[in-house]
Amino acid sequence: MKINQITAALLSLGLISAANVAKADTQIVLTSNGQTYNVVYITGSTAARPNVFNAVTNGVFDQTPPTLQPTTASGSTSQYNAIGTIGGVNYIISADFTGSEAGLGALQHFTTDPTILQNPNTASSLPGYSSGTVYLPGTPNPSFINPNNTSQTAAAQADLSMADTSQAVSLTAPPAYTALKNWGIVGVVPFEWVKATNSAPDSSWTDLVNVTDPQLNFALGSVQAASFFTGNANDSDSVYLIGRNKGSGTRVNCMLDTLHGVTSAVNQYCAGNAAYNGSGAITNGSSSVTLKVAGGIVALGNDGFDSGSGVSGTLSMDVNGTTDTYGQIMTIGYLGISDGNTAAGNHATRLTLNGVPENDATVINGTYSFWGHEHLYSTPSPDSTVTTVAEQLVGANANSSPNQSLGSGSTAAGAIESKGGLGGNEVNTSTTQSTIIDPKAMAADKASGDAGYPSQI
Amino acid sequence: MKMMYRAALLAALGAAGFVSAQAQINPNDLALGFTVPQGTGNSDYVVDLGGIPTGGNIVANENTVLSVSGFNGTTFSSVVGSYFAANEASVGIVGGANAGGTGTDVILSVLASQSNPGTTASSSAPTPVSSQSALASAAGTILSGGIGTGQLSQTAANSWFQQVAENSTTVGAANNSFASYLNNNPMTILNGTTGTEVLDLYENMGSGRSGTTGWAYDGNVTLDVAGGNLTATYDETATAVPEPNILVAGLGALALCGIAARRNKLNRKQA
């Protein structure tokens, strides 16, 4: 039995409601058939969500597909249960994907105030604002669907987490925090920069087609004139940055690629029609309106969206007519490929980074640098049930020798590798943007883990 | 039962309120950092001194005592002790905010002249910084958990050693640090003989979309760590506005003079 001490403390403080708290067990009896099931809780990267879903539904259980709760669960679903047998033993894989950093933080199973996971509301003008202590959604513990009552969720300590980086470069890196068990690299997860459309483009918008890491380093600090990026002194639009909160692996990779620093605070923005939800996360209003109609731009400081969909939604808003002291403005943001596709489908435009477009070919050959290593982590000493699921996902040898390599040296051999729908092996890599690339397909790697820039291998 | 007791204890402490080694520096708080030479297992020690005292009670030479409530002398001595005596420990003060525009702000320390720890700057102003982004990025390295407080391993991402500066001559070990963004290092060698230092504080703020105000002298902080105890006193710049009670006293004296004069006038008339 696992009782969440932090949750109990927060409950007694009134910081979270009793309705959100339930006792979590590693075993549960399904009332539908009276059988006992091992429950393994997985959280972490939302970017890896579709690939993990493919793996769980096609390559982990004895039956394909397993029983799903909800039955409509898909690769874009954050909370679901997959129920079936593994090696003839009953298992429930219960998922709540909340972000890489949130996932790594959740695996710490904090017993004291997890200050590092606090994420205070920063925009008092937005509905739902609270001045109290707010933690990253999904922390200190994620919430999972109750398999006996799917209309309920309960907080539970996570067993496994997908992460877009290694723990070594995370907010909860050792030695300050407990070293987690690394089950190895299962893929390469790329990201991209996008600018929102302007239906009446001015020279700033037209000229800004490329960004560089040194420019972005300072754009993360404060608003820049478009001329800072374009070199054209006449490009006077202010460029506002749309991004993620500190629970995001996308953000960590952005901080690493731009050398801004993983723990450094940034200045990010959202649309005026955004609001805080009950978990303290910024959520978008309608993205089918112009940014001006949405209420213009609102400063979030070091906060950002808990989901990439918030960034893509904001970047889907036409900026035409939105102004500040210096005139027309622009918005740019960083996203995973799936969310970038959403924004691009709403007329946003992909930017090249350091002069290089994002596609599988440029990631594979190392000319494009904005990507991370997708890892699977668990608590330091996972029990046999967690080990069973982890080995199904990443390969039986991962327990003793987790994959640390890209290219021909990769030993990733689990369901994510075989059934996860990884990219990079297609013929037309230069016109394909995969959400996660097969580690075996890579021809470049970053010598110092996730930090630094890639070189060919 | 035991776990529930612990949870209740956490609740009693206030989950957001108790001091831990991972506490965050709030915008414009003064963070006092001590570093020692790089070495396996070595740590920094960081104390949040709170904000620069403001308001009508602050006047030149008042020497306002700053809060050092998070300071633990035993831990501090274990971290800094032997290096302190050998003049190998460094100390500095930083602060800032990165809210953008005029909400951007950086504070850093420069060693004051030991012979003149008065209310005017006894040091040279830091190297000019004209980029607001540099200020915001520098402030960002220490805010929102960028650095913690208490004992912090040199290798921890939120250590002073990584995020601010390694010592008085080397910027932070992270790719970008407070000192590297500003091209100014706030650290100085801690005097291992006296255990005291006077640090002048300079402040540079955002102006407009991308400009800065330039460095301005804020006052100085006198530190004393002799004996493993820490005291920090703040001395406002000499241009401070007199505190209200002095003004009131002055106005009262003027009023009394007026009353006395009126009485004298009346007395003369009555005479």
Report on this model:
The complex is a heterodimer of chains A (457) and B (271). Chain A has twelve helices and 22 strands. In chain A, strands 1, 2, 3, 4, 5, 8, 9, 10, 11, 12, 17, 18, 19 and 20 form a 14-stranded mixed sheet that branches. Chain A has a two-stranded antiparallel ribbon with strand order 6-7. Mean pLDDT of chain A is 92; it is low at 1-24. With 457 residues, chain A is of the alpha+beta class. The longest helix of chain A has 11 residues, at 49-59. Chain A has a domain at 190-356: 3-Layer(aba) Sandwich (D-Maltodextrin-Binding Protein, domain 2), CATH 3.40.190. Chain B is an alpha+beta fold and 271 residues long. Chain B has two domains: 19-240, no CATH class; 242-271. Chain B has helices spanning 2-13, 73-85, 132-142, 160-163, 178-182, 244-270; strands spanning 29-35, 43-51, 64-65, 90-98, 104-111, 150-153, 187-189, 196-207, 211-212, 216-224, 231-236. The chains are: A alpha+beta (457), B alpha+beta (271).
Total beta strand runs of chain A: 22
Helix content of chain B: 25-40%
The 3D shape of chain A can be described as globular
CATH superfamily of the domain at 190-356 in chain A: Periplasmic binding protein-like II
What average pLDDT do the residues of chain B reach? 79
Distance between the termini of chain B: 90 Å
N-end to C-end Cα span of chain A:
46 Å
Strand content of chain A: 25-35%
If classified by CATH, what would the architecture of the domain at 190-356 in chain A be? 3-Layer(aba) Sandwich
Q: Pick out the low-confidence regions of chain B.
A: 1-21, 239-271
The arrangement of helices and strands of chain B along the chain is HEEEHEEHEHHEEEEEH
Tally of helical runs of chain A: 12
- What is the count of β-strands of chain B? 11
Biggest interface: chains and residue counts? A-B, 48 and 50 residues
On the 0 to 100 scale, the average pLDDT of chain A is: 92
Number of helical stretches of at least 4 residues of chain B: 6
